[in-house]
Amino acid sequence: MFPGEGLVLKPEEMAVYGADSSRRSAMPWAVVRPRTEEQIVELLKWAEAEKMPLVPRLRGTGMSGGAVPAFGGIVVSTLWLNRVIDINADDFCAEVEPGVITSEFQALTQKQKLFYPPDPASLKISTLGGNVSTCAGGMRAVKYGVTRDYVLGVRAVLPGGRICDAGGRAHKNVVGLDLTRLFVGSCGTLGIFTKLILKLLPLPESSATVLAAFPSLHNALEGARGVFRAGILPTAMEFMDHTACQGIGQIKDVPWPRESTQAVLLLKVDGSASALAYELDRLERALSQANPSCLLKGLGPKEEEPLWEIRRLVSPASFQLGPDKLGEDVAVPRGRTVEAVEGFQAIGKENGVHVACYGHLGDGNTHVNIIYDAKDEDQRARAKACKEAVFRLTLSLGGTISGEHGTGITKGPYVSWQLSETERELMAGIKNVFDPSGILNPGKGWV
Amino acid sequence: MFPGEGLVLKPEEMAVYGADSSRRSAMPWAVVRPRTEEQIVELLKWAEAEKMPLVPRLRGTGMSGGAVPAFGGIVVSTLWLNRVIDINADDFCAEVEPGVITSEFQALTQKQKLFYPPDPASLKISTLGGNVSTCAGGMRAVKYGVTRDYVLGVRAVLPGGRICDAGGRAHKNVVGLDLTRLFVGSCGTLGIFTKLILKLLPLPESSATVLAAFPSLHNALEGARGVFRAGILPTAMEFMDHTACQGIGQIKDVPWPRESTQAVLLLKVDGSASALAYELDRLERALSQANPSCLLKGLGPKEEEPLWEIRRLVSPASFQLGPDKLGEDVAVPRGRTVEAVEGFQAIGKENGVHVACYGHLGDGNTHVNIIYDAKDEDQRARAKACKEAVFRLTLSLGGTISGEHGTGITKGPYVSWQLSETERELMAGIKNVFDPSGILNPGKGWV
Predict the structure, then answer these.
(1) End-to-end CA distance of chain B, in Å?
(2) pLDDT tens across A224-269, in order?
(3) Is B434 on the interface with A (CB under 8 A)?
(4) Which residue of A has its CA nearest to B404?
(5) Residue contact B403–A170, C-beta within 8 A
(6) Domain with B8 in it
(7) Does B110 contact A at CB distance below 8 Å?
(8) Same domain for B180 and B245?
(9) Strand bridging mode B30-32 / A365-372
(10) Residue A370, domain CATH
């Protein structure tokens, strides 16, 4: 079924297929690399007959172990299904195979003045298939939504080799239950994708960015409120807390006053070039009412770049504070962000670990980096206690334990904290409809 | 369980609960009108035990008979569950009961400078619960998407009285399978809604409108292309074909040259007031390249209103051409609209009935009004043949037989033209997980 390099059996070659960005890993029983949908159909016929677990995988940039064969099975890499079948500027629609790299796809769309908004941080190496499997988010979700909002259709092979063609190229479609969005974020538990139909937008002419530093989290949130109240829907609205700012300050000159800065906001707007100068003024006025200690503007990609470079340093800079981190991605109702971040900081103090909060304020989606030293058993225990307290606070604020990364294996034990037995039973029932033998990515998700 | 007016049994009072905007009707076995979730829980416990079919219903503005008890059962009107529980300008989120009227909710959000974009034509009388049941669309879908894109959570009572709380107030949430969107558009077949959590946006400051008339459908589509190519994502992009324009011309003075006009485009943009004057110029430039014979602009609601009044006349004006109509809502990939509309017009000619096409060009979502005289048996047969030919052409262009209205009963016989056996089996399996006895809105949808 898988001639030549299509089958990998040597442990040293397989190891890389057993890990992902969660830094968890497990050795696959075998790895197969189909080149065609026909091979996947054959594989799923055989696997269903043999009750053989399969773990679908692409670039392994997932943060929660969704692609790790932690409960055994054959890893199925669909990276070789990587054709861009069609990008159509009249239909505002693309058809791609799952292995296409997100940023390469975006570059192709831009050539036709088209725009695929989802922008997970991993987009330079992650794939569209992986993004759809996890319903990847990103910074532009405030204005443009997440991956879910750009999936018009999914073609998937199901256990037994049946093919499901959900959705299609029409932008509106309400015939039958919404199988398309059910596949989005299902983490390879319902079928193996062989084709995706994606929605595109016209490419905005340009963009502009504002960075504002504030003497308190409250001021920063007041600034964010002012922006929304002015009727501005920013493309991105990122924030960094005191700890995140400090980390950056240790590896780079920063434009804000180090002592007095408790929070930094970074906002992007996009649209037509002439309108943007005006939008930038409105942004500045809205933010100024919350008394920022520093406000920098950039009009167009060249001026914006240095401001966004600062944001990208948050994650590497956190290692200035400790050698290891737990990177959580909780989300709370947008207005509860101050309570959440203050609470997360207090939890860090109580447990004696650094907690850096940053991320997508516009979505209430906070990345909580718990920084510790994994070699120290006591610190490991405190980091875990801290993570669990973060989840409890998040849920008490009406939030979710995962805004972007999915539950995979790292959050598996906590899913029942959020979802009731009824919801989990419904999900298990739906899973059973697609995969009655439970061979697709067993043990992941919501069980 | 339902004291006083909560139970309706007199045929003359029940009749209205058996009809909807599809103009189909059937007499309910009984009508119940719960005031509380507890009553719905009791009802669903009893109905599950008795295997009693239930047909959930709100305002009955659906166009495809989804709320008609065509296969028997008790109609459950949740119109009395009509509280707006919360509209929160910090969370950009609202919690409502299903019976809240869409336009009344929108007026409340606007008072807080918030914006709920879905705008089905029926919004002055339709309910949010009905909109979610059908995944209602509308004119603003080009820029803002459909109802699905604004549902963050759904609370529903399932057969047996179990309660499912899907989703929540966080704008991003990827824990478990996406039950929330599965409920959207499920036409009352999975559960009875008792609460909806809706996403809100900041209210755009103002809007502007352009009307442009063209000597051919091709010119109109070229104009639409030019708009998108300029990087403009219009709020709405409506079109009306020659027949629709003629119908309007019979009841109103029209601004375009009657003889030479084959298509009219109507576009809206929104944003900040100052940026809009500039956006309007860009729109005009983009459209002018496609040689419109007439171009009118309106900046702000007062100037825009007369232009949109014309659009609202399409449906009443169609009755100038005949006493009865079949109103279909097919959608094709956006770039296939000219082929589709020319094809629909040709199908009308072949079958000797008037066909007026208009609607949401930006979504490829065309309303096809087949106008005929239902008293004439031959015309009835020709209208039906015409409708079926419209569906066949739509599907051959990669489209869907319903972009907005759902399948209900009127499109039930045609669902298998679009969905494969595999897709229908999956849907039936999912339905069975929620409703194993098949008591919720039996016979509707995708069977």
Answers:
(1) 32
(2) 989 988 888 999 999 999 999 999 999 989 999 998 999 999 999 9
(3) yes
(4) A174
(5) yes
(6) 4-77
(7) no
(8) no
(9) unpaired
(10) 3.30.70.2740
